[in-house]
Amino acid sequence: MPTETKDYYTGGLETGYYPFSFKDNECFRFTDKDNNEAERITYSNYWREQINLYGQKVGYYVNNFSLSSADLLYGEEPLQRYSPPQMIIMAVNLNDNALMLSKYGLLSEDEVTAFIHISGFYETFGVDAEPKSGDVFQLTEYGRSRPGGRDGKFFEITERLDEDTAQINALAGHYVWLVKAKRFEWSFEPGLSGDAVNSQVYDDTKSPSVTGASKPYSFNVDTESREIFDYSKTDYGNVYGGYY
């Protein structure tokens, strides 16, 4: 028997060493994107149908952060604003009270994983628009029937993915955005508001408050601290210096 040759592996008919003739890298593939366009359109329509049937309508606020006007040393933009909300539909997987262990103890934060059809996002925000970290959305429809005047929770996007083969890229297609978000804590950013019926604790009466909320107590930590550290009222020496 002759020594091994390329024909032995490729199954060249002229050699007779192998009963089938084939060439590597030239076989038909189910994942060939030149041949499976119709199947990928079917998957795209499947995602569109699932999102429209089982998704939630949310108010989406675009973060208008601009590198040209930002302070790159601190990574902040003093004049940053959020655009008025646009209503879009997401398929939402909400994890309420997600526990996370840190060196300071247990933290409880709501988390969201959501799916947004790419073409649906284009229709609302324009072609080539993409969700990005820092954008905020409110679960408007989900929170509409909450008791006590509450409304939908706000979430800030922390991650955006277009490729996750285990979940969203059947036949190597790209149909939806997968976004991950955490509960948003409002700190008076222009264009946004906090959750309704959410009285914030603050000591400075000049600070703005959530609409409809007022300072719920008369205690002032600054005044009380001055009383504690006023050594003229005690027999203790001023060993640490004056408080003010």
Structure description:
- This protein is α+β, with helices and mostly antiparallel strands.
- The protein folds into 3 domains: 1-28, no CATH class; 31-64 and 80-194, Thrombin, subunit H (Beta Barrel); 199-244, no CATH class.
- Helix content is 16%, strand content 23%.
- It is built from 4 helices and 6 strands; from the N terminus they run ααβββαβββα.
- The protein has helices at residues 6-10, 37-54, 118-125, 221-228; strands at residues 56-61, 86-102, 105-117, 136-138, 154-161, 176-183.
- A 6-stranded antiparallel β-barrel has the order 1-2-3-6-5-4.
- The longest helix is centred in the first third of the chain and has 18 residues, at 37-54.
- The radius of gyration is 30 Å and the shape is elongated.
